[in-house]
Design goal:
The chain is of the alpha/beta class and 406 residues long. The chain has 2 domains: 135 residues, Aspartate Aminotransferase, domain 1; 255 residues, Type I PLP-dependent aspartate aminotransferase-like (Major domain) (Aspartate Aminotransferase, domain 2). It is built from 14 helices and 17 strands. The longest helix has 21 residues. 45% of the residues are buried.
Length: 406
């Protein structure tokens, strides 16, 4: 059924907040989404009624918490259509998932002179881990270029895939531009040369259905807090064949089978990569957020957000001296722009005074801003609870900004 925002917004208490006496307009969803009551209640219920360490106790609470945690693994498996539950690794979020792959994969499969491919539109968290890994292995980090529209240059990508390429690490959706990359095609081209692919899906899973078997990617990462769930929890999907070959990322409890002072053997998947006490409450909160998304339906979420994206873009085009950054044919949920004669920070500061939360700056994607030779952008990022009415409020505020600066 279509999204009815007036009803839906009642599930998000924070949206009733007043900022400087004005109703909050929250357009910073690419940074983090707000949480529905169902997620908040799930967190509270766990700590009030289920709190216990899992997999380690024979008592009732431990068994109950273990069952809930393992049920969440099955929910994650179904959500991305992984082949096995043990291909789902719980992490602290996309950043830790990427670091896990960068450390464990590279320590096993990368040597001096090899190449790792990333794209020109990556978030810092999908740049720096590979820089560190390449420095340690004396490998080379190569960057797939993009054009002025914010689309990857696929001919260049094809040419870059070679005998020295060991892994491709690309974003599904750019957090700064909203570009939806042709990841299925990119995976297929890499696999023609037996090169594995890791996808940063942090900005994709809130907005579209993801099927890792259809994509045939080797690794896929996403975070709970970008999709109406808690902060500090996320998922790494990895094909069983790769995960079995990769060494552990961290060591400690749960990731071991047997420990002796002379030798330790590691546990099976997924435990090999889940050292220490897991973040049970937030895993369950993330599961509840996924259930919230599935109840709404990806097709309805996409239709609603795409309507808002086109409406916002059309309204913004009416303003003077505005420059859009990222005009790819395939985009979702992000409008990135700046006034040619006003610093983005000044625009964002005034909008905040008027109750409107946007993100300004380089959005942890500084190489993108360097490419466009700009200090940063104003980013409006949309979610399922946003409305055309809020876009109109933002447009009135931007008109005031325009008037203030002449």
């Amino acid at each position: 059924m279509p999204i009815h925002t007036d009803t839906l917004r009642k599930a998000f208490p924070i949206l009733e907040t007043k900022v400087n006496g004005r109703p909050l307009v929250y357009f910073d969803n690419a940074a983090t989404t707000q949480k529905p009551v169902s997620v908040l209640e799930r967190l509270r219920n766990y700590y009030e009624r289920e709190n216990s360490n899992i997999h380690r106790g024979a008592h009732f609470l431990s068994q109950q918490a273990t069952d809930a945690y393992e049920g969440a693994s099955k929910t994650m498996q179904s959500f991305i259509n992984a082949k096995h539950t043990h291909e789902v690794i719980f992490t602290r979020g996309t950043t830790e998932s990427i670091n896990l792959v960068a450390h464990s994969f590279c320590s096993k499969f990368v040597k001096a002179g090899d190449e790792i491919l990333i794209s020109a539109m990556e978030h810092h968290s999908n740049i720096v881990p590979w820089q560190i890994a390449c420095r340690e292995k004396q490998a080379e980090l190569k960057v797939i270029p993009m054009d002025e529209q914010g689309e990857l240059c696929m001919d260049a990508y094809r040419d870059m895939l070679g005998e020295k390429s060991r892994l491709v690490a690309i974003t599904h959706v750019s957090n700064a531009l909203g570009t939806v990359n042709p990841v299925k095609e990119m995976v297929g081209l890499a696999h023609e040369k037996n090169i594995p692919v890791m996808i940063d899906g942090a900005q994709a899973t809130p907005h579209m259905a993801v099927d890792v078997q259809e994509l045939d990617c080797d690794f896929y990462c996403f975070s709970g807090h970008k999709m109406y769930g808690p902060m500090g929890v996320g998922v790494l999907y990895g094909k069983e064949a790769w995960l079995n070959q990769m060494p552990p990322y961290q060591s400690g409890g749960e990731m071991i089978r047997e420990v002796g002072f002379k030798k330790t053997t590691y546990n099976e998947l997924p435990f090999k990569f889940e050292a220490g006490t897991p973040n049970v409450a937030d895993v369950l909160g993330m599961e509840t957020a996924i259930q919230f998304i599935l109840k709404l339906g990806h097709q309805h979420i996409s239709a609603h957000e795409n309507d808002l994206l086109h409406y916002a873009t059309g309204q913004l085009k009416q303003l003077d001296n505005i420059r859009f950054v990222g005009t790819a044919a395939q985009r979702t949920s992000v409008v990135s722009f700046l006034f040619e004669d006003i610093h983005p920070y000044d625009t964002g500061t005034i909008l905040d005074k008027l109750g409107i939360a946007v993100r300004t700056g380089h959005h942890c994607a500084q190489p993108i801003m360097d490419f466009y030779q700009i200090p940063g952008t104003v980013r409006i990022s949309l979610a399922v609870y946003n409305t055309r009415r809020e876009i109109d409020v933002c447009m009135d505020a931007l008109t005031r900004v325009r008037e203030m600066f002449g």
